[in-house]
Amino acid sequence: MLKEVKPNVRQVKLGWWGPEVSEVCFGSLAISPLQGRVTFAEGVQVLRYALEQGINWIDTAEIYDNYPQIAQALQGYPDVKVVSKSYAVTAEEMAKCLERARVGLNRDVIDFFLLHEQESALTLKGHQGAWEELQKAKADGRVRYIGISTHAIDAVKAGALQPGLDVIHPLVNHQGLGIIDGGLEEMLDALRFASEMGIGIYAMKVFGGGHLASHPHTALDFIRNTPSIQGMALGMSSKEEVDFNLRYLAGQEISEDLKAAVTYRERKLYIADWCQGCGRCCETCPQGALSLEEIDEGGQVQAIVDSSQCVLCGYCGRVCPHFCLKIV
Fold first, then answer.
1. What's the confidence (pLDDT) of residue 105?
2. Which of 146, 151, 212, 283 has its CA 20 to 30 A from that of 297?
3. Domain 11-261 in CATH: superfamily?
4. Residue ranges per domain, the chain?
């Protein structure tokens, strides 16, 4: 039996002016109600375990609806940093989002706050009011660092030129799965540009929403070996997943038992047959993976999913008024 040795978690600096953090950021979507993999209490336990192992920052978003879960896990960990995000458009909306985060996370200062899922210079322009409020919050100390998250190449390029931007959280993986406006090489070019501008970059969807999880070594190695990317947010919902990822990145031997414990189980988006075809999920899906299809001659339509495009984020389930969508 292998001796259990706590992994040595690598520390990285986010961009030229960002903080030093662990290479791995805990992606809390995996323990949130949005994905429903674990209970509230189980999620707290997994997150606290990750902090005990040396992960020192957490990625969340207003849409994940898990501020209380994170706040409970952070008791006794005042130095752990938190990233949150919102879809706010106006300054007034952003001010409310920031206050909800501060109250919900029980923190006077939010370490990072990002505009969620920006797509281009045009969408950034449309969120100008919210961005100006983020700049104001950074100036008056409510937030330390500001930026964007995105699945789009154009947004990475535009974000790198956005006044006051500190960090970009892009979708990137070794097959380019989930990029909405081009291919992997174009995304890597954009990330190089942003990195040369001094922007801090930490990757999302490293495992392509689960599509690449059967070869985790390849997925993790790709991100670590891309010079323009400093860190990665990994969604983890079990202690075994935390152990596997951290031990692999630390170059430690991994037992067969641990490998077996994290063997990837195929997951998919389930759409119930009582779907009314309202189309809200289609409008929400950032990947364009959902569409409406006619199911009978009477014109009744229901949502269908293109599994090759779905990254299993679960955002669609949140807007469904009839609770038809679930990741299983």
1. 98
2. 283
3. NADP-dependent oxidoreductase domain (3.20.20.100)
4. 11-261, 269-327
